[in-house]
Design brief:
17 helices, single chain, mainly alpha, Amino acid/polyamine transporter I
Length: about 475
Amino acid sequence: MSTSAAGAPGKSYIGVFALAMISVAAVLSLRNYPTMAVYGWSSIAWYLIGTLLFIIPLSLAAAELASGWPEDGGVYVWVKEAFGERWGFVAVWCAFSQNLIWYPTVLSYIAVSFASAIDPSLGANKLYNFVVMLGIFWGTILINLRGTQMTSKLSSVGVIVGTLIPGAFIIILWLVWMGLGKHNAIPFSTAALIPDLSLGNLPFVASMVLMFAGIEMCGYYAKDVKNPQKDFPKATFLAAIIIFIMSVVPTLALAWVVPSKEIDLNAGVIQALGVMFDGLNLHWMSPIMAIMLGVGGVALMTAWMVSPALGLGVVAKDGLLPPMWSHYNKQGIPVGVMMLQGVIGSLFTIAYISIPSVNTAYWIMSAMTTEVLVIMYILIFGAVIKLRYSNPDKPRPYRIPGGTAGVWIIGGTGLVALLLAGYFGMLPPSGMDFTTPTIYVTIMILGTVALAFTPFLFLLFRKDSWKEKAQKNQEKHA
């Protein structure tokens, strides 16, 4: 039993609700709705597919791993216990590196949201995007350096103010819209419920991984939970329920008011709200809602920013990274990791702003992010299966039901879904006109390998002195 389960006297802990909100903040984002709304009524089927094949298996696997191995490091510790430290390193590095190419897309969403509250035309202004995106990025880093308590508070408040309330408001507006008999862009039919599984749409299957990624995020906060063996499973399941409900209904609302061909992938939520506000004479609500959506984006980014950094901090303690990565501040945040994340993330953000087509940049970066995440989640599902054999007697307050057969069904389902998602994600999407299929696949493969397997370069040049210096850094900041 981890000593953290009992807690330390006088310490402030993260509760079940706050822990769940960290996962909800990491997963649930209104910015995903436009991608789903394009598919109209069939988005329900896509959500069901994603929930049954990915989010439920991942929730169960993460609950077992987090309750059995609640030590600092989250994914790194889970995979390390199953496959050794190098694959644990790869797993947490994937969580870290995918952020670097994902940050620009969420920063763009935040910038567009705030621009809509001031002057919508600013969303197309490169100077505005440069200043706002980088300003918010570094502002979030500085806030997160104040510790995990600050992160959990920002995530909880941000997801409520910027995601749950706007999502509920969209649902209410939709009900009023339907009650007044306003136009419907997705007339209902039984055939409309069936998803299009043609080859051109299969790459969309991969985006489901990115859409539901992050429910395991609370596993990085083990040291800040009073009773992790009980609280992790509760928080994980609470988060899963909230995510499913608050994904399906608002997506249909958006699809109802905006024709699929007109949906903007980056600003679709504001676009739909604008249509409803105009139709219901609530124009004054637009700036308020736009600001709230921006806050939700900040909460989303905050949840993803600190968690992998904490995992890499543990990697550095084990001597797998250069000593600069093991520097912590008094609040227990790995400063070296956060600063490096800031520098590299800024470079990707500048590159994103420089690409002429926002939708093209959005798709490429999202697709590559998904491929890196697929590798991490394959290792997580593999770990939950492996540890049932290699460490069967380890206390697990929560276990996937059904014994060995149950863990194979859950883990196997997740693995098959991820392998398919990884394959489909490499395929060029329908309507692609920005490059040739061969070049697209080459970019995806090279980019994924470079982002996911950098740890092997660190391991190649690893020095024995790294761990000794890391221990001295820990003693200095203890």
